[in-house]
Amino acid sequence: MKNNTVSESQPQVAMPRLCRALENLADNLAIFAEEFGFEVDDRLPGRLALIGFANGIVLGVHEGADAARLETILDADAVPRAVEIAGAGASFADEYVDQTDWTGEVGRILGQRWALSADNGSGIGYPAEVRLRTLQGIRFGLAVVREKPETAKAIFERVKVLPFENRFLSGRLIYWSDRSWVPTGKPFIEFVGNWYKAGSVEQEVIAGAVAEVYPIAKALGNPWSLPFWAETGWNGGKLFARNRPGHCKRLLEDAGEGYLEGCRKLYQRYIVGTTRADGAIQVERATLFYLGEHRDGDVARWVCTGREPRHIARTAYDFTYWMGIFSAHPLPNPET
After folding, report:
1. CA pair distance 292, 250, nearest whole angstrom
2. What is the percent of the chain where pLDDT is above 70?
C-alpha cells in the first residue's frame, strides 16, 4: 500500500525496471489504442488499464497456458507488487457489479487499485504511468480468470459483443501470444488481416494491398475517408486482376465457387445496378448502396454517425477490391 507518511523532500525511490518484453507489450497496446482513436490525454492511462484488463480476461479464458506464462513474467517484475495482487481476483469479483456501464465499473475499480498502489508515486512520469497501469490491468484480468472464473466468463460475454474496433483491441494478447507478445504489423494492417482465414490467399492479397495504400491514407486529413478506401480498393482490384493473372487465379481458386457466385450477385446488384446510363461506373455510390444494405444492420448506422470508421474503411475496401477484380474479368472462372 502507499506510504503517505514519507516527506516530499525525501528522494524518490527508483521504480523497478521493467523487462524489455513488458515495456514493448505495454507500448504496443498503447500504439494500437492511439491508432484506434484513443486520445493521448490524462484519461489514457485509465483507458489503457481497461484495455489491458479485457485482454487479460480474453487470454485467460481461452489460453490458460499462455496466461500462466504471462503472469510469470509480470510477477518477475512485480507488476503489481506481491501484496497488491494477493487475492486480487476474488476481491475484484466481490466489488464488480455486472451493470449496463460495465466498462465504467471495471475502470472505476482499476482506478481505485491504482490510487492505492505503491507504484503510484509522484514524479513517476506519464510514460511510466501508462505502462504500469496497462500492465496492472492485464494482471488483474488474469487474476480474475484464475481466482473467479465465473466472473471472468461473465465479463468475457460482455467483451464478445463490443463494437468491432474495441473488440479487436481487447483481443491483442491472445493474437500475439505465439509471437512473444509482438504484433504482426501496423495496427490497421493487423485489423484487416484478422478478417480473413489465417494463411489464406485472400488474407495475403488484400492485407498486402491495404499495406501499400495505408501510408497514403495516413497522410490525409481523414485517413478513414470512405471515398478514398472505395476508390483505392476498386483500382487495386482491377490492377491486381490485370497485372498479376497467375496470382489472381490462385485467389479465385482459394475463394471457391460458392464465394465467387456471391461476388457475382454483388457485382450485378451494386456495380451494374448503379452504373450511369452512359456506362460510367459510380464506385462511391455502389459502395454506399452496398453498405446501406449490409447484412449487419449496424454498418449503415455507423456510416451515418461516423462510428467504427476503420471497420467501415476495411469493409468498403474489401467490397470494392473484389468488385474491381470482377470489372477486369466480369465472370472470373478458376478454370480459365
Report:
1. 31
2. 93
CB 14 within 8 A of CB 119: no
CB count within 10 Å of CB 171 equals 19
**Dihedral (C-alpha) 178, 179, 181, 187: value to the nearest 10 degrees?**
-120
pTM for this prediction: 0.89
| Rounded-to-integer distance, Cα 58 and Cα 171, Å | 6
224 Cβ contact list (under 8 Å, min separation 6): 217, 309, 310, 312, 313
Measured CA to CA, the distance from residue 48 to residue 114 in angstroms comes to 13
- The residues spanned by each domain of the chain are 20-183, 190-328
Which range is least confidently modeled, 12-16, 67-71, 284-288?
12-16
Q: Are 19 and 37 in contact (CB under 8 A)?
A: no
CA 52 to chain centre: 12
d(CA 66, CA 74): 12
Can you count the helices (H) and strands (E) in the chain?
Answer: 18, 0
DSSP state of 16: P
C-alpha cell at 316: 468498403
The pLDDT value given to residue 100: 82
Give the H/E segment covering residue 232: helix 226-243
Are the C-beta atoms of 317 and 210 separated by less than 8 Å? yes
Please report the pLDDT score of residue 4 as a whole number.
38
3-state SS assignment for residue 57: helix
Cα distance between residue 205 and residue 317, in whole Å: 12
> Does the pLDDT of residue 68 top 60, yes or no?
yes
The span from the CA of 258 to the CA of 335, in Å, is 14
